[in-house]
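Homework help board

Subject: predicted structure for assignment chain

Our instructor gave us this sequence and asked us to write out the predicted structure in token form, then describe one feature. I got the tokens but I'm not sure how to describe them. Can anyone check?
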Amino acid sequence: MPAQLDQTPLQTTQGLTRTWDTSKITTDSPAPQNLVTRVMAARNLHDQKSANDFLNPTLATLHNPSLIPDLDKAAQRILTAIDKNEQITIFGDYDVDGITATAILYHILNTIAPKTKINTYIPHRINEGYGLNKTAIDTLADQGTKLLITVDCGITAIAPALHAKKRNIDLIITDHHNPPTNLDDMPDCYAVVHPRRPDSTYPFGELCGAGVAYKLAWRIATLHCKSETVTPQLRTTLLDLLTLAALGTIADVVPLIDENRTITKFGLAKIKSTPIQGLHALIHASNLDTNQVDAEAVGFRLAPRLNAIGRLGHAEGALELMTTATGQRATDLANQLSTLNDDRRATEQRILKQALEMAQQQGMTSPDKRAIILAHEDWHPGVVGIVCSRLVDRFARPTILMQRKDGLCKGSARSIAGYSIHEALESAATHLNTFGGHDMAAGLTCDESNFQNLVESITHHANTNLTPDDLTHTLKIDAIAKIDELTEQTLTTLENLAPFGAGNPRIKILIQNAKINGRPEPFGKTGTHLSLRIGDANNGTRIIRVIGWSWWQKARDIAPGSVIDLVVEPKLSRWNGRVRIEPLLSDLRVL
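My token output:
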């Protein structure tokens, strides 16, 4: 039976880098439970059925797409356009979610009617900005577009929707970003497909743009076949498209629960067998040929490459990679994306260094200023969103970074759990030209003359709605475990809780009273990582190795023989046919 903690409403302990929240830990009364059961209970999976449903999701659990308002109407209009041979344009976004959503609709329509006039359009991040715009609509109308379908954008496109109607284009909006609270405030267009519309009863509102596009693709297929059972070719296409939906779901950091978990689990399982040659080329360029492509690989290897071209150039290349690129063209595009990703990293590091200095100089990292809002003329607007995330990770407070150029400030915002950056921007709307997004991320523009007013307004909103205690990083711990409980069989079972991500974080285990065996050791090319060997300080002879990525500077001075508490992610290391137990260090404290 693991050590018991004081049963207060919120149990916290301060580690070296984080506050440890142990409130999810369950007691073992009346009978001891194994580690897997304790972890499940911490995630509200208290019985065999709920645990089995979570560990073994099936495609049958995906919700009926027809429950999303306007989705059937949209699907039927698309099929009518195919029958009439009308030109259809899919209008996407320049991030991974928008690219994969665009590709999903492209592939399903191309499967149903290969000769249909299917056009795609991704706006240029710098020249056009996010979402529908009148200039693009005019261009598409002049080219003959009769049906325009947005993916991952459009829910706030009031004026562009009216302009599309003026140009005799039927507009279908599919989106997942925060919708208006009243139906009367939605864009006036042929259909608005959104799982969280004010009138929606759809049972799961956390789909990403690619998830919404996948639901539309599914319904297009069944309506085309006039049956819930589709042709073998369409069934194969729909199963293959789960991979694109999984990429968008992971990259857009929506909760990996309910049908998002199902989409991601099945999509990742098929990623190595995808018929999309461009995705194979991207996997190769990311050095993932021999590795398992899990959610972490998507989030840190594939998604950054797909995003890089949209951040520094035009995302058309990424879309081509996910749709039509084959052979050498696919290889060249994938390599180009990798090179651009290296350039993006260099730009990101330069901006991060400047932003850190500015935030600290202006007192925005102190407890009395609970938001970081900065602007600089040299910052690339396509990269500031990533730097926002870095500052949120560092200082645990909402962050807005913008580029000053030609009298305009343009940038991105990121937030912390429990604080809606979208609501914060709504509160400062009088100082903004445009804004849109959701609770955790948004884009915005304002006149340079209004920037200081924006700073004061957002800071006031953050100070009012956040306390100093909210500005701390917290590790939510699932269970306390003894070293002897970390067996290969147990850790293999815990791996089945993957895919991990938002809404289903990686498992955190607290090991108490561990004794350091030997000296902490650095490893890696630059010697920045930490290797610790630990055993139970009270009894037992078993020693395991714990890996701490980028932990050497923080733990190098811990003396051999020190007794510590540490929080780890249970992890199996597989290399050259050998399997070893090597937990990953999240935090520690010396006793």
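Reply (TA_rk): Your tokens look well-formed. For the description, you could write something like this. The first helix runs from residue 35 to 42. That's the kind of observation they're looking for.
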